[in-house]
Amino acid sequence: MPNEVDHIEESNMSNGKPSNEVIWRNNDELAAHKDFEAFLKEKFPKEAAILKGSGMGRRNFLKLMGASLTLAGFGLQGCTTADAPNEKIIPYVRTPEEVIPGRPVFFASAVSLGGFATGVIIETHEGRPTRLDGNPEHPGSLGSSNPFVQASILELYNPERSVFVRQADENGNRISSWEEFVAAVGDALARLEDGSQLRILTETVTSPTLASQMETLLEMYPGASWHQYEPVARDNVLAGANMAFGEPANTMYDFSSAQVVVSLDSDFMNAMPGSLRYARDFMAGRKVRPGAGVTEMNRLYAVESTPTPTGAVADHRLTMRTSEVEAFARALADALGVEGGAAASGDAWSSEAFDAIVADLEANAGASVVVAGDEASPVVHALVHAINASLGNVGSTVMYTEPIEVSPINQHESLQTLVDDMAAGDVQALFIMGGNPVYNAPADIDFAGALANVPFSAHLALYNDETSLASTWHVPETHFIEQWGDARAYDGTVSVIQPPIGPLLDTVRSPVEMMALLTGDERRSYDIVREYWEAEFEGDDFNGAWRATLHSGVLADSAAEIIEPTLVGSLADDVESNAVGASEGLELVIRPDAAVWDGRFAANAWLHELPKPLTKITWDMAALMSAATADELDVESEDLVELGFGGNTMMAPVYVMPTHADGTVTVTLGYGRGIGADIDANMSFNAYDVRTSAAPWGGSGVTVTRRGRYDLARSQIDIDESSPIETHSPVRHAPISQLLADPNEITYNYLLTEPSLLPEYDYSGGYKWGMSIDLTSCMGCNACVIACQAENNIPVVGKEQVIKGREMHWLRIDEYHAEGEDQTYFQPVPCMQCENAPCEQVCPVQATVHSDEGINQMVYNRCIGTRYCSANCPYSVRKFNFLDYIDESALLAEQRNPNVSVRARGIMEKCTYCVQRIKSARIDAQVDNRRISDGEVMPACAVACPTEAIIFGDLNDENSRIAQIKQEPHDYGVLEELGTVPRTTYLARITNPNDALEEEA
Amino acid sequence: MLRQNKPRRSPGQSTAITPVPQPTLGAPGSITDKISGTIFTGTPLWWWIGFLISASLLGVFMFTIGVLLWRGVGIWDINNPVVWGFAIVNLVFWIGIGHAGTFISAVLLLLRQHWRSAFSRFAEAMTLFALAVAGLFPLLHLGRLQFAYWIFPYPNTLLLNPNWRSPLAWDAFAITVYGLVSLMFWYIDLMPDLAAMRDKTDNWFLKAFYGALSTGWRGDAEHWERLHNASYLFAAIATPLVISVHSVVGLDFAIANTVGWHHTIFPPYFVAGAVFSGFAMVIIVGAGLRRAYGLQDIITIDHMENAAKFVLITGLMVGYGYLMEYFTAWYLGHEGEWVLTVQRFIGPYAPFYWLMVIFNVVVIQALWFKRIRRNIPLLVTICLLVLVGMWLERFVIITMSLQYVHIPAGWDFFNAGIWDWLTLISPFGLFFTLLFLFIRVLPIIPIYETELLAAEEAGGH
């Protein structure tokens, strides 16, 4: 550590103004500086006090508190800066003549992951963006969102965002400015002998504007080349399409008209472009409502090794090793008469299940979908194209378009080519637009080493990350909420990204601006994006069309055209030659992470603390394996192991995961960046250390060696076999046949006949709010959890507090496994808002009381913190502020919802059904002298839910959706036998098992 | 002296079931000398050692409280769902300790069990000190201590009352009343002795000190008459409190529908447990005092044996309570309750559960034997185990139950950390500091009652 102090130097430049500030290269250096505490005390006395009181180390402190330290000096100048650009943006829902204080204003924009856009609505309060929800008019969202979308608002105000343009010089690093950078770029470009010494590296690009800029650039610098790399790229999808059609094609699915779905190692409802839409469509086919006459549902067979949320809701789940999935696909192809198939031998799967799947697919030809996961091998993808074609699904449930990506290429090859050139010294100037290849390049591609060989490299990024520090220049990037741009959705629909707020910092630049700079264009991105679309526009009224696009968030009629690619004749041969036989030995599976994806969300505290679906692990990744495999390896959960794969090693804590395939170890990407509580141990949890371009998603031959112990912070402890999952189980489930025959045996509602001595509340004339959660539709994706966190100002508590059991999420998702079954049952648990609430009875100071609309209100100001309400809550939904959890740094405070109190230490809090939204809707209704109409108020969780599993409304209104749902025979309340009369009820989980396999299930 | 071993019949008691232990001193006046002598002689070394250890522990307690107030209740390792940890366990434990004092001074007074007088003063003092400790915990437990007074119905502009449906509001009244009544009862009883101390000393400061405290007691017949009436009056008030306080504390749990708490047997079961642990503490403190001050002829072996019998009886009641818990869990047919019972037997905290059963049920069976009841070292050992057992019982009921909430996915464990342990151990510093101060400053045995008893004895009634 002392050596690092050398990097810190005295500088006369800080943000262009003379000063004697200590400057630093990254937080670690600052923390190591001997004068750190004095510096802190002088500049940020409040934070200094927190450091002293918290007991956390300096480095941890900076990780958590960086926002106020680095950005407090700048404040929210985006709102007020004098030279605000004249860029017109159009609000989405209402167009107030001016902002009315207290009324949120909404703007449509789009957030992209892996290049694919999801439309969002940005809620702003007095100019501050506070939350994101899906854009109902966007085909890839339909109003719903996922945790990444929900949590990306936090990135805007993220403590760790990069602040300065930074140049590497002989002393280390110095703070520079955009103007200096522009000059340096000019010099660097002028020094080029020809274009072939110029390289651009981007992540996957779907933006039409960027594409046209790239075209211009490549024209200006002939010989220059554009490379793309991001770790979770769709190389296998592309290779599969090439194998099947001889050309790239984009596949889209219409699950709404599919009766039978077979998923091959695919998490199509979570981790795929369009997954939000797919989840909505697929679950729409599973909403059985005997009360409303809907008695049919679709059927899902999932074939997978690592359990996914999609597999968890399957009617039949076939667990097998990843290498066997390919054999399964070939066997399936063979059975369906598709060329390239091959009958499989062995006992990797039950032949009854296989025969049943084949029969079901044949019976539902034209109304079925076979879908392969993005990580599945090219052979599987090619076969799936052929299978869907042979079943007649193409055109009905499976559609093809031209590729959505501007340039669909194999990104590992692209990166390899670039690195070879860099290493050979052929690259004089490299511009890296986003991404973090120094961290996330495969182990066999030495990007960092090659980068040192490039005289001029510039990295545009949101954070001062590994690649920034290894480049000669770093330019802070705008957050998408601050930038103009555009991107395409899974079906090609264009969204224009519009910023409801100016950049928080005047140093930041968008990718469009960076690209423009290379072509000598110094305009801001608004002009560039608008100009591009004006040039593309065919019609009379561009202004009107532009306004309409910004307003609705999507460019009308911009979806890609459906094409019908034909299968090439060589498919069978290609499959044969590329097929890999099932392998022996322990297999490694590498997957993107449910919280940090490929590592890009590694600074997002909400996502870190989000209990991952199916493991409930927070703040860490783990090597997942089945109990049998763990026994074989002689390890158990929370053992720290070294994984050796292909000559490389990484460390990981073990988590023994129910329903995981035997003989397989799964690790997820994105960790190993020194985040979380135990920075040093965490640094070695880097799956990129064992990832190679040849085997990006793992392969056979991983070794596991026990090295120690490591604490995992899980939000739900493992329940052993003595757990009470019987008649009074919180989760009730049944096959559809039982629902139709005898629903009482699912719900036991008939047992609830006990009268109460207490008088009933009178709600006549008013509202009576209620909620119902459809367990059939829930796949545990966590969108609701983060949506609730963003809406209700729920604090992040950190890994140590999670280990202690103090996570604050008002809405949690419980998970249960049934013995001998491969199913996982998810149960979102918000407050039940009991009619006869145990919490209300025992609070000695009446801090929690019943509202006249049936909600158990929590009066924060009155709470003295006896915690009796929590002890008496049978649902354990109350959360206590054991310590001062709320982060008081100025910047993060800007994200908070002004309509929700921030809770202090020592008081209880819980789900309120988003009462602030009800109040706001009531005001609107009263102004118009009417009742709140059905669907007008939706709590944040219900809005976010991709599958519309959460229904909310007024029970007094007989025609409301909620009142109808509560009439369904499989509606039940958890722990109703206690006489609590919960307001939140559940629709039992209904499955549609194949009769032929009934016994097995 | 022959009568000493014969059962003695008192008015208001049809059959005396116990041989009445009596002080074995001869002449009146020597008792006064002996008891006041414990104060007026020089401070013995053992006192200094004991006091300093206790005071140090008290210092640790003060420090713990300081950290607690500064950083919040999160310094304990409580969590969701185990929101009640050692603070509440300690509250119930210490209130229980206090019960024996009230039981001895009030119930036995009403029952005319005059042998009680040897115990009554320090047992009553123990009650007060235990209450002083216990009373802190409901406050320290609060998330926002500064608003603790909201639990009382004080006049306020918001016209807000406490929630009368909440057992915690009942608790606040029960414990406050209990504390005040105990203090007044103790003080009234102390007055003649304070006067005796005033008369005994030549030191002007002590004379003033005891004189002020004795509020002008001159030993008039009228004074004695009033003292007598007041004693019986307070005994009559305090007797139901013995039952009610711990019943109300028991209701905190019985009213809640939490698994492991929702048992109708809790109020009587808690009272029995309280007297059980209280007598154990009386025996431990009594054994210490008689040895330290050579009071074997005032707190006789018979006294100790009688107290041991109470330990046995109440211990059997507690054992019955355990049996009823099993029965309820089985009979209720509620899975959560049954799972909790099984988890108590075999779960991760099962060792604590079995220790509790051994200490509270098995070990005390030794007290059936007279030789053991009259063997002070053995008796004290058993009583120490009982105290540990009773603390564990509260832990098992309160904290362990909360781990196994109704919703299985909500289960979580409580793992005590350093601040929890300090919160458990350091309050003993407050208790013993007060106790050591008490034995240096005030007569530990009621002089007048003992004199009276001895006089009755000598005068043959």
What brief labels describe this structure?
A: about 1000 residues, alpha/beta, Rossmann fold, Dimethylsulfoxide Reductase, domain 2, 5 domains, seven-stranded mixed β-sheet, 35 helices, globular, disordered N terminus, B: about 450 residues, mainly alpha, 16 helices
Task: Describe what you observe in this structure.
The complex is a heterodimer of chains A (about 1000) and B (about 450). Chain A is α/β, with parallel strands linked by helices. Chain A has 5 domains: about 1-75, no CATH class; about 165-235 and about 405-480 and about 505-520, Rossmann fold (3-Layer(aba) Sandwich), CATH 3.40.50; about 250-400, Dimethylsulfoxide Reductase, domain 2 (3-Layer(aba) Sandwich), CATH 3.40.228; about 585-715, Barwin-like endoglucanases (Beta Barrel); about 735-750 and about 765-990, 2-Layer Sandwich (Alpha-Beta Plaits), CATH 3.30.70.20. Chain A contains 35 helices and 44 strands. In chain A, the strands form 15 sheets. Chain A has a 7-stranded mixed beta sheet, sandwiched between helices. In chain A, a hairpin with a 2-residue loop joins strand 6 (about 115-125) and strand 7. In chain A, helix 6 (about 145-155) packs parallel to helix 28 and helix 12 (about 320-335) packs parallel to helix 14 (about 380-390). Chain A is globular, with a radius of gyration of 28 Å. Chain A starts with 8 loop residues before the first strand and ends in a 10-residue tail after the last strand. The relative contact order of chain A is 0.12. In chain B, helix 3 packs across helix 8 (about 265-295) and helix 4 (about 115-140) packs antiparallel against helix 15. Chain B has one domain (about 20-145, about 160-460). Chain B is mainly α and about 450 residues long. Chains A and B meet through strand 35, helix 30, helix 31 and strand 39 of A and helix 5 and helix 10 of B.
